[in-house]
Write a structure and sequence with these properties.
Number of helices: 39
Oligomer: single chain
Strand order of the largest sheet: 8-7-6-11-10-9
Number of domains: 5
Shape: globular
Structural class: alpha+beta
CATH topology of the largest domain: Catalytic domain of cyclic nucleotide phosphodiesterase 4b2b
Distance between the termini: 89 Å
Radius of gyration: 37 Å
Length: 1117
């Protein structure tokens, strides 16, 4: 057997495809299990990681197998000195004829076990994992989005902007922000020029700072890092701008090392992920044979799809004949002296890319247009034919500049575009069909396309658009417009127009379309300027010059005119021939058919809307629980009426792509229906009622392999539940009818699905589940196999983007709603390992939270959303202060439970809640609400399905309930000043709290809990202001001006005449309630000083905005 050598070399130009191919062949020759070769490439340390062989140092050669008896025996010695030297440097024996891979593996394992112990290798492996994810993401996402996501996650940044370089323009562009900046402008340009990392604690003080680009705004408490990224040849290809709060400076060594690591790897792999995106499908579609007008229309669409440009052009200049032709909608002769910007590309034979067309000296308003827009022109020279082609792109709504990526993509596509155009021109020259044959083919194709679209149930606008495009090709017009009759006003309105960026106007009574509507005749005008019936006012409005007109009426099935097709300006400048009219009449008859159907549908929808409006009034006052009961009663009646034994209403669950049973009647049906198989998804996609009277042999009914219910269906009717906007909410299913389903059954099912649609349309699915049954919502989010697991279910995990907010003070409570609130609680319980410590099942915690949410009122601020906000902030304080190391697990759980329930203490009298009365007056002596709440919670735990404490030990249970009651009692507003005084007195001569003292321990935990009540003060100013507005909206206490209370004789008292109630309450709350609590907490638990400092920033900002410091003495909190 011949020797087959595989050389594994480490270099920056490593080819992954060759690597995989090599090992595939190696497996074939060696008969080694594919699992054995599970390699990972690490070019930075020149090793390949392997499951069995820990690390193998490369390069070296593996010879082919010499005999099947000994598959690892080497048949050839090592080749080259570099391989032997590499192995020796690692302390490994060189491979010779007597060595084998097993021996090398053992030696490698010992060597690398020592290497992997170092923290640097651990960090390196973590960075490798991040890099792998980045490289994979570049396959499906734009490069700028991938880069921004990586640094957003790894640097915990507030914002990341990737500025990509456009070398030909000396400009950097942010595709996300859609703005450009020159190489010499702003901090971005400064970094590009310096070619080094720039870290600024006060970016607005830097001389190069530009507010428009660098965007610090009013947030001065922000630090910024900028650094360049290089391509594979060492040129700067972009600048990364990272911003985050000043409290998180860029001084963490691990983060800076990651930036350096990523910059190196970015350069190494640049050729891999920066390869121009190229769509073979588009090229194949363009290379198909078609008429030149068809090709140019398709070319315009594809360029708009790829580059978002306003228009695209192909230019051809023949050096032999000195002729220049432009292909846009048709071929046009252009004087080379008036070719504008494209002329630059022709003369220089070099690409032209500009941001502003009018800034170029070659700009020609006739050719380049009057609008300011970017232009990209790519030339292609054919020296053999002495011809040059140029593909040009112009402007676009969202195109501020054509990027380097756009240049590369267009450069790669240009040869194919030119080849397609050349082939079409050759075909026209040597095998040109008669114009009549071409028109006949276009008409026939239009009919076939329409029939296909009808069968596939395309949208109406798509069907009309395709018909109009075909008619435009037949008559070879510059523009085609369809006007439809609005029956309410009896006026024509524009429904479709092939001209881009054409304003939609309503034709006046004296326009040609209006005259066609009134008479039903065809108007064919050869010279619009000299025709007395032509109204030129439309040209003035649209800035369009009309020369020739062909207007054809559109008839419905009753021979009434319901629309007009108008074609303007035949491309060759000649009048429209009468032979075109017959072809247009054929296609407009199909157009009239779909328009007539649409008007009939609108009339039915209007009647349905009236019914909805009537039912909305009565249903708006009905609760969701009442609706479910009503559904169940109606389903029971339908079962009896239709002689079926079971029925159910299913709602669409987008999160898991399935249908979930909301309510059922009769014998049971499946709780969930898979949207990837069966008759139910077919009904949803078709939006029509589907029937199967022989379900056991119906191929549309597929048994879900995961369904173990054993339910057998003999017959089934499925009716989609559709909103007035055409969105599918779910389905109504009724099954096992004794006889075949009748038209009367279909009518009943349609009426019931309409009733359900009207009921649910005003209620979002989250709202239904909030006040419906817990089982319904649990089915939506937790798989049956996950319910009894002591872990977070897959659907209850927080997405990475939100996880950063939940772990920091960036958490905005108003942005977390519905199931996201449950996810936050699950996240906290998982962080503190409550699931495993106390054997809490996923369904038990879900049921507990569901019941707790029902208890909370639906108020503006004091609701379940605020309870989760308190828990999030308390868990954040626990993490940063590491007090979980000082507490036992039962105390930690007690603190979290108290956080979730503390807002329920004053629930009996929340409507009359007056914090100032509680603070300054002696509250009435009533039963301790904390004790009352604990009793309520204990009673609630009588339901074993929601009892999260059922698996706790007796001692843990006692500790937990005792701590909960003490925390809730100590956190009452009436104990506010006493708690602060006790904490301040204790910490007078101490640096840290004595956690071994139970009394001091309780004070510290109570302060942590109380800090959660004022969590919004420790967040950004924007979040703080938004949350306080919600508080003020719900609770607006007023301080009695006649009270002679020395605690209020402060700047609050003096400034009361200068500021309104809201600001007075805002500053008063901070000064009297929030700041003292946070300050006392920071004294007892030193790491919490950051919370106090953040709150102080907000407090000082309020005071600086509304107080005159010179005239009003400042009062300390």
């Amino acid at each position: 057997m011949n020797s087959v050598n595989f050389t594994l070399s480490i270099s920056e130009e490593f080819n992954a495809c060759f690597f995989r191919y090599s090992f595939k062949k190696l497996r074939e020759f060696s008969n080694i299990s594919s699992q054995f070769f599970c390699w990972k490439f690490y070019p930075q340390i020149s090793i390949m990681k392997h499951k069995a062989l820990k690390h193998i140092h490369t390069p070296y050669k593996i010879p082919a197998i010499s005999s099947p008896q000994n598959p690892y025996r080497q048949s050839a010695p090592m080749v080259g000195t570099q391989s032997t030297k590499s192995l020796k440097l690692c302390g490994l024996p060189t491979l010779n004829s007597s060595s084998n891979i097993d021996g090398v593996a053992k030696t490698l394992s010992r060597v690398n076990s020592r290497v992997l112990r170092s923290s640097r290798d651990v960090a390196l492996e973590k960075n490798d994992g991040i890099l792998d994810q980045f490289l994979l993401s570049t396959l499906n996402m734009p490069l700028h989005k991938c880069v921004e996501t990586v640094f957003q996650n790894e640097l915990n940044a507030r914002d990341v902007i990737f500025w990509q370089d456009i070398p030909s323009l000396h400009t950097l562009v942010s595709k996300r922000l859609e703005i450009t900046v020159s190489h010499s402008e702003a901090l971005v340009g400064f970094t590009f020029y310096q070619r080094s990392r720039l870290i600024l604690e006060r970016p607005f003080e830097h001389p190069a700072y530009c507010e428009r680009i660098d965007r610090c705004g009013e947030d001065k408490y922000m630090t910024m890092m900028l650094f360049p990224l290089y391509d594979n040849v060492g040129s700067v290809c972009g600048v990364v701008q990272v911003m985050r709060p000043k409290t998180q400076p860029f001084d963490v060594k691990a983060e800076l090392e990651f930036v350096d690591y990523f910059s190196r790897k970015f350069s190494t792999y640049y050729k891999v992920f920066a390869r121009p995106a190229f769509s073979d499908d588009i090229v194949i579609e363009l290379l198909q044979y078609m008429e030149i007008e068809q090709f140019l229309m398709l070319f315009q669409k594809k360029m708009d799809q790829l580059f978002k440009c306003r228009c695209a052009e192909i230019w051809k200049y023949d050096y032999s004949t000195k002729t220049l032709q432009m292909y846009k909608k048709t071929k046009t002769e252009i004087d080379i002296g008036n070719s504008g910007i494209v002329g630059d590309a022709i003369n220089s034979r070099y690409p032209v890319n500009c941001i502003t067309n009018k800034m170029l000296s070659s700009y020609n308003e006739v050719i380049d247009g009057s609008d300011i827009e970017p232009v990209l022109a790519i030339p292609l020279v054919n020296t053999k034919l002495n011809v040059i082609h140029v593909v040009a792109l112009r402007g676009g709504n969202k195109v501020v500049a054509f990027s380097a990526e756009d240049e590369a993509n267009l450069t790669k596509m240009t040869p194919y575009i030119v080849l397609a155009l050349s082939n079409i021109e050759k075909e026209e020259k040597f095998g040109k069909s008669s114009e009549t044959d071409i028109r006949e083919r276009h008409c026939f194709e239009g009919i076939l396309d329409f029939l296909d679209a009808t069968q596939e149930k395309h949208e109406l606008n798509d069907m009309i658009g395709k018909l109009m495009e075909k008619m435009e090709l037949i008559v070879r017009s510059d523009r085609a417009t369809l006007y439809t009759l609005d029956r309410s006003t009896m006026q024509l309105k524009t429904m479709f127009c092939t001209g881009k960026n054409v304003p939609i106007v309503n034709p006046a009574d004296q326009t040609i379309p209006s005259k066609v509507l009134a008479s039903g005749n065809v108007y064919n005008i050869a010279d619009a300027d000299n025709d007395i019936e032509f109204d030129s006012s439309i040209d003035l409005e649209t800035n369009y010059k009309t020369k020739t007109i062909l207007a054809v009426p559109v008839f419905n099935c009753s021979s009434d005119v319901i629309g007009v097709c108008e074609f303007l300006n035949r491309i060759d400048g000649k009048p429209f021939p009468h032979s075109d009219i017959n072809f247009i009449r054929i296609l407009t008859s199909f157009c009239g058919m779909v328009l007539d159907n649409r008007q009939l549908h609108e009339e039915i929808s209007s009647s349905e809307k009236k019914l909805r409006d009537v039912l909305d009034v009565s249903l708006s006052i009905m609760s969701d629980l009442g609706l479910q009961s009503t559904y169940r009663d109606i389903l029971t009646m339908l079962n009896q009426k239709m002689q079926c034994d079971r029925s159910a209403v299913y709602l669409l669950n987008d999160a898991k792509d399935n249908l979930v049973s909301l309510v059922s009647a009769g014998d049971p049906l499946q709780l969930t229906l898979n949207m990837s198989m069966g008759i139910a998804p077919l009904a949803c996609s078709s939006k029509d009622i589907l029937i199967s009277n022989d379900a056991r042999h119906d191929t549309r009914i597929v048994k879900d392999p995961l369904d173990l219910s054993g339910i057998v269906l003999d017959s089934v009717l499925v009716a989609p539940i559709i909103t007035s906007d055409g969105d599918v909410l779910g389905v109504f299913e009724i099954a096992n009818k004794k006889e075949a389903f009748s038209p009367e059954d279909i009518s009943l099912a349609r009426s019931f699905s309409l009733f359900v649609s009207i009921c649910l349309e005003k209620r979002e699915l989250n709202t239904i589940s909030d006040h419906g049954n817990a089982e319904f919502e649990m089915t939506r989010w937790i798989e049956p196999t996950e319910r009894i697991e002591c872990a977070i279910p897959a659907s209850m995990s927080i997405v990475t983007a939100k996880k950063i907010d939940v772990e920091t003070t960036r958490y905005n409570p108003l942005q977390f709603e519905g199931i996201d609130l449950f996810r936050v609680v699950f996240f906290v319980f998982d962080q503190f390992k409550f699931f495993s410590l106390f054997e809490i099942h996923a369904d038990t915690l879900f049921g507990f939270l569901y019941k707790l949410r029902e208890i909370y009122p639906t108020r503006i601020y004091h609701n379940f959303q605020r309870a989760v906000d308190i828990l999030q902030f308390v868990s954040y304080q626990i993490r940063i202060s590491k007090i979980d190391k000082r507490l036992n697990s039962a105390e930690l759980l007690a603190l979290c439970i108290a956080s979730l329930c503390i807002d329920l203490i004053n629930e009996d009298n929340t409507d009359k809640l007056d914090y100032y009365e509680i603070l300054f007056d002696k509250p009435k002596k009533v039963q301790d609400p904390a004790l009352k709440l604990c009793k309520f919670l204990i009673n609630m735990m009588g339901n074993n399905k929601i009892n999260i404490f059922r698996n706790m030990g007796i001692e843990d249970m006692k500790t937990m309930w005792k701590t909960v009651m003490k925390l809730l009692s100590g956190a009452r507003m009436s104990n506010h000043f006493k708690l602060i005084e006790m904490a301040n007195n204790y910490m007078k001569n101490r640096d840290d709290a004595e956690w071994g003292n139970p009394k001091i321990r309780l004070i510290a935990l109570t302060l942590v809990l109380k800090s959660g009540l004022v969590a919004f003060m420790c967040r950004s100013n924007q979040i703080c202001e938004t949350v306080y507005s919600k508080i003020a909206e719900e609770v607006s206490p007023e301080v009695d001006d006649n009270k002679d209370n020395e605690l209020i004789e402060s700047p609050l008292r003096l400034a009361k005449l200068k500021i309104d109630n809201k600001i007075r309450e805002q500053i008063g709350f901070a000064a009297i309630v929030a700041m003292p609590i946070l300050k006392a907490a920071s004294k007892m638990i030193r790491p919490l000083i950051t919370n106090y400092e953040l709150a102080e920033v907000n407090f000082e900002k309020w005071k600086s905005c509304f107080f005159d410091y010179e005239s009003i003495p400042q009062s300390t909190t």
